[in-house]
Structures are given as C-alpha cells and as structure tokens.
Amino acid sequence: MERSKSFEEIIAQNIVEKISKKIILNELEIAKVSYGLSTLMINIIKCSLIYGSALIFGRISFTAISHIIFCIMRRYCYGIHAKSSINCTVIGIIYFTILPMWLYVHSLGMSSQQVLIAGITFGVVLYHTAPAFTNKGATKGYEIKKKKALLANAFVTVFIMLFESDFYRLIGFSGLLLSVLLTLPVMKIPFNKIKIRRAR
C-alpha cells in the first residue's frame, strides 16, 4: 500500500513538475530536488508556526534566543528526530514558545557559574555522544564533526554566560540542553522505530 503524501510533499511535487517542464531532469535529480524542496517547506511551515505562536504571546525574543542556540548546536551535534513534522512542530511550540513564557512568569533564572558548570558537563557528555547520527550517510568525517560539536558547545556556553539577565541565560541554556539531550541513546526509548547509528 502506497504511503499517503504529506502537504509539504504535495507542494514540492507540484513545484518539481513545473521545473521539469522547463529543465530536463533525470529521475535522480528529480528525487533530490523533490527531497530538498520538501525539507525546505517543512522547515518554513514549522518556523512560521513556532514564531507565529511566539508573536501571539508577544515574546518573540524568548523564542528566538532558545531556538537559535538549539539550531547552532543541532547543526554540529545531530541527534534523533521526531517521527513526523507535526510532532516536531508541536514539540517546538511547547519547548521554544510555551516553556520560555512559563519560565518568565515564574521569574526563574540561571547564574553564569551555573551555566559554566552545565557547559563543562555537556562537553563531557558530547565527547561520548556527539555527533549522534541518524543515518549512515552522515558518518563521514566523524572525528572532525565531534571536534566541531565540542567547539560549538564551548562557544555557545560562553555566549550564554555573556547575557546580563539570569532569565535570558536560562532560556539560552534551555536551547543548549535540548540539543544535548537529543544526542543521548536513552532518548531512543520514547521513539520506537528511531535508531541512532554511530560511526565505527
């Protein structure tokens, strides 16, 4: 039974069909373009919903700090993914929009010393877990990617420490925390069907 296509895949397919009428593409090129467009559409829709919800709350800066730090770390640490773009979007709204608001309402914060200790701890964790690949094709250059993940952690930790506000340090830390958690093998448990494959 053929899998039903997602909204993003349908849009990507329509765009590819229009492109292929003007440019001659082989099957492999069509597949690559279609995959790239689908990924782009998913990310655009996801970010629109996350930042749209943040705009409704009137605290888009909270979301931006946490999300940007997460994206920087995710770029180098990799890690598991949600089983669907819908799940990913819902988790993103909860974590990057609702959680910062909850922290703000409860006047929570984090000192520079606490951020430093956490950053060092995360460095040790990432040394053993990063980069946490989710596909075999990403295993090329494993050691270099590990070094980049550790450097990203050090850079982000120092960056978070530079915030004058304890609260902003905390929401920056939340983005760092999530990226590290998603590299842990134990995170596979709630996501049966997702397997983290490591380079040997």
From TrEMBL:
What are the recorded GO MF terms, alphabetically?
peptidase activity
Transmembrane segments annotated in the record for this chain: 49-73, 85-105, 111-128, 149-165, 171-191
A GO-annotated cellular component? membrane
- Report what the protein is called: Accessory gene regulator B family protein
Keyword list, A-Z: Cell membrane, Hydrolase, Membrane, Protease, Quorum sensing, Transmembrane, Transmembrane helix
Q: Name one Pfam family in it.
A: AgrB
| GO terms under biological process | proteolysis; quorum sensing
Taxonomy, top ranks, is:
Bacteria, Bacillati, Bacillota, Bacilli, Lactobacillales
Q: SMART domains annotated for this entry?
A: AgrB
